[in-house]
Write the structure tokens for this entry.
Amino acid sequence: MDAKTVTFTAIPDLPLVGPGDDLAAILIDAFERAGIVPQDRDVLVIAQKVVSKAEGRYVDLADIVPSPRARELAAAVDKDPRLVEVILSEAREVVRFRPGVLVVEHRLGFVMANAGVDQSNIEHPQGSERVLLLPEDPDAACAALKAQLDACFGVEIGVVINDSFGRPWRNGVVGVALGAAGLPALLDLVGAPDLFGRAMRVTEVAVADELAAAASLLMGQAGEGLPIVLVRGLSWDAPPRNAAALLRSKERDLFR
Amino acid sequence: MDAKTVTFTAIPDLPLVGPGDDLAAILIDAFERAGIVPQDRDVLVIAQKVVSKAEGRYVDLADIVPSPRARELAAAVDKDPRLVEVILSEAREVVRFRPGVLVVEHRLGFVMANAGVDQSNIEHPQGSERVLLLPEDPDAACAALKAQLDACFGVEIGVVINDSFGRPWRNGVVGVALGAAGLPALLDLVGAPDLFGRAMRVTEVAVADELAAAASLLMGQAGEGLPIVLVRGLSWDAPPRNAAALLRSKERDLFR
């Protein structure tokens, strides 16, 4: 990545998105209303929740019967056993838990709280207790959106789906990339010399996570309805890598 | 934080910084050359290395006699015993190690590789084996720079010092805030309702880390010499909190 000025613009007036909606068409409309024409190497960062809603990834807790394991874990973490059942159904394994906290490895490999199952910023039809799961396949969703937007505008853009994760050791959540297409989500700097000709020790930069964090600054956390951010001014030479490249395997990890 | 467009601009042509240099004066010169006049609520993100160099935080490995403990650990992590001695002198405790990896809690509370002791992008005078430590007190350095820049330009800016950290579970480094002044490094959203009136579950956002990550996209990792990024377009109502607020206490941490 090389740039002098990079601009992040939150796309205003996005309508509420519902199951089955054509997200690419919604984005194209929103660009048009905002007078924005995507250019080559623009990166579109999309909040996970919007993609999940378009995919209809809702589960109604009223339909869930918790397993004995979910009931036991729910008591330990002080959460609704039905919610814990949904979390476990989205998880490969439980990584850590204590009252109020349930960290799992999501089936897609993300180590995160509650497998990303979310109860906030969701429309609740009368009587429903809906929760929202992560998108089915965020990298594939990015690739599909990129293909549709590229075709519409005749450009080559990058697409990132972001979410907010807590971290070990540090307070507060930060934006993190769940999916990416069309850009090097992980940028390999092996062998690049530093200013003084010494070989670099830092070898890989999580570019998509940095973009996800930056876009999160504009999206806000309190539901202002700014889930789409266009990033302009980045450039890169490296080939695209999707967000799966950001996942460290359990075998190579020191903290599981 | 609330914003529609946020612009990140890397300040060009910063001279190499050396021990004892007046960093505020250097920044003021660089702004002038670039035709940039800081405004209220601009945030200046400064790479750790520049601050460390101005503070003269060099150690020459030739002057270091490693302790038996450093020699033992150096063998286990496959690093120079003198470098490990310096790392240990900057650390409260060793968190994890394996060949090639040494994660410690820095004396300031950061859990990070090698206590931030760095061998890349450092000028090496003939015969020296210098390494560079983190700034003495990054929050204080931010406050001092903010005071000088605010006074010069008659504005109220934010200042962040960033570095690149690896993370558990995910590949690649991301920009992280070591210090902050003049902005809410950690933004508390307790009680803010979501779009549909439901109380938020996410309560704190690590705003300074998101800024640090975003600025890192422009700074690059390969020593392009763009260690200063000006962020324009953010706004906030919350009172300032420095980067120490981002540190989770060991007692509240599930991963130590």
